[in-house]
Write a structure and sequence with these properties.
The chain has 295 residues and is of the alpha+beta class. It is 37% helix and 7% strand. The strands form two sheets. Strands 1-2-3-4 form a four-stranded antiparallel β-sheet. The chain has a two-stranded antiparallel sheet with strand order 5-6. The longest helix has 26 residues, at 269-294.
Length: 295
């Protein structure tokens, strides 16, 4: 199979100039209708993939290719998921996950129906949901309140209301290319997350988070679902390219080699130049002072 690795430039200005708040903006009214996750491109996160597996009822349970396999949570988890949702999420998103709380109005909170398992799983497993502060402009990553099985159960129940995609990704990092991933990251991600992956401020009090402690499958989930202000990369990046980016993030960004010396926390050339100037000039000043005292 041939692999298309042509990088696609996504203009950061679209992200900064037009922020679209997703699940994180729980308190901000939204009239946006969710667009189904779809792309005509093969191997780009939908069942339009090299391999598709269906159950006896004809429902897609997994799909993908050698780079990424996407799995739909088992329907058997839906009953548990509904109970967990009602306990932890319904106060904002409503008992039907449609964004209409019992004492609220339509559009007050995000509608979750049709977003796909990967979207729900990302927000719950990253600890952003259930929200610590529903009035916050952007939810921050924190220790998750619910464990992985509970997150999958909630995703299974919401997906049962309106089956959608993408599924939960499992990335094949062994065959991914870290060099190509670095180039793709620089073109598509660095404008917001910075080339060091430390994140940076965006507009209207929002920010691109650090990528330092994000597991591989959550990096892929974010790329495919576009949480918060992040663009949703569907038809413009193949699964092979996403796997390359994930490998670069989970190796070079999260575990830098720093072959040139001290990494200084990955703060970049400005910080490195400042430290070099401080130490260099300071050392020269001390030598000059020592020589002067001897004279």
């Amino acid at each position: 199979m041939s692999r298309s690795r042509t990088p696609f430039l996504v203009l950061a200005a679209l992200v900064v100039a037009g922020p679209v708040l997703g699940l994180a903006s729980a308190a901000v009214a939204s009239t946006t209708t969710h667009t189904p996750y779809q792309t005509g491109r093969v191997d780009a996160g939908t069942p339009n993939s090299t391999t598709v597996t269906k159950n006896s009822a004809g429902q897609v349970v997994s799909y993908g290719d050698p780079a990424i396999t996407y799995t739909t949570p088992s329907p058997s988890l839906a009953t548990l998921g509904q109970s967990l949702f009602l306990e932890n999420c319904a106060s904002c998103h409503g008992t039907q996950a449609n964004g209409v709380p019992a004492n609220g109005t339509s559009g007050a909170y995000p509608d979750l129906v049709g977003l796909g398992p990967a979207t729900i799983d990302f927000w719950v497993e990253s600890g952003r949901m259930p929200a610590a502060d529903p009035t916050a402009v952007q939810a921050k990553r924190r220790t998750p309140r619910l464990d992985q099985n509970q997150a999958l159960a909630i995703a299974a129940w919401i997906n049962s209301l309106s089956p959608s995609y993408p599924g939960i990704p499992s990335v094949n990092l062994k065959d991914a290319n870290v060099s190509d991933g670095a180039a793709l990251f620089a073109l598509n991600c660095a404008a917001c997350h910075t080339i060091e992956g430390d994140g940076d401020a965006l507009a209207s009090g929002t920010f691109a988070p650090s990528l330092r402690n994000v597991p591989a499958y959550q990096v892929a989930e974010a790329i495919r679902t576009g949480p918060g202000n992040m663009p949703r990369f569907t038809g413009n990046l193949s699964d092979y390219q996403v796997a390359d980016i994930v490998k670069y993030v989970t190796t070079e960004i999260q575990h830098p080699q720093n072959v040139g010396g001290f990494g200084l926390g990955g703060l970049g050339p400005v910080a490195e130049g400042f430290v070099g100037l401080l130490l260099g000039v300071g050392l020269l000043a001390l030598v000059g002072f020592w020589v002067g005292e001897r004279q």
